[in-house]
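Notebook, student rotation project (T.W.).
Task set for the rotation: take a protein with a known small-molecule partner, predict the structure of the complex, and write up what can be learned from the model alone. Partner molecule chosen: coenzyme A. Sequence and SMILES entered below by T.W., checked by me.
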Amino acid sequence: MAVDPSYQRNGIGSALLKMFCHYIDENALDAFVMSSPAGVRLYSNFGFKAVGVVETKHGNFTSMLRTSGFMGNNGNVCEEGKLMANSHHCYEE
Ligand SMILES: CC(C)(COP(=O)(O)OP(=O)(O)OC[C@H]1O[C@@H](n2cnc3c(N)ncnc32)[C@H](O)[C@@H]1OP(=O)(O)O)[C@@H](O)C(=O)NCCC(=O)NCCS
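Predicted structure of the complex:
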């Protein structure tokens, strides 16, 4: 995923990932990404967990996995209409 540098840090990456997560949640799918350092926080906010590091000539990439059963597993509750992304993040359904 990439957002034009002049529009970054305005929530566009989160909005795109929210749509993607909505689809994978509805279909009970697992998701895997190889993230650049810039993307790790974004993916973490939506429940992806770092599971490894891949070293390339372009730098290190973090392997991140989001399993379909992660929602609600941490015991926290989001306000109505929001889905759990991780222990401190909820997002609009
Ligand atoms: C990663 C990227 C897609 C994020 O898009 P964005 O529209 O800026 O993301 P958002 O504004 O929704 O921010 C989402 C989170 O990512 C964090 N973030 C955004 N850009 C970041 C950067 N360059 N470095 C570290 N964290 C970053 C934000 O702080 C935010 O976290 P928070 O809400 O907990 O504070 C964008 O920086 C990008 O296109 N980078 C270049 C390509 C790239 O490295 N893509 C990574 C996927 S492999």
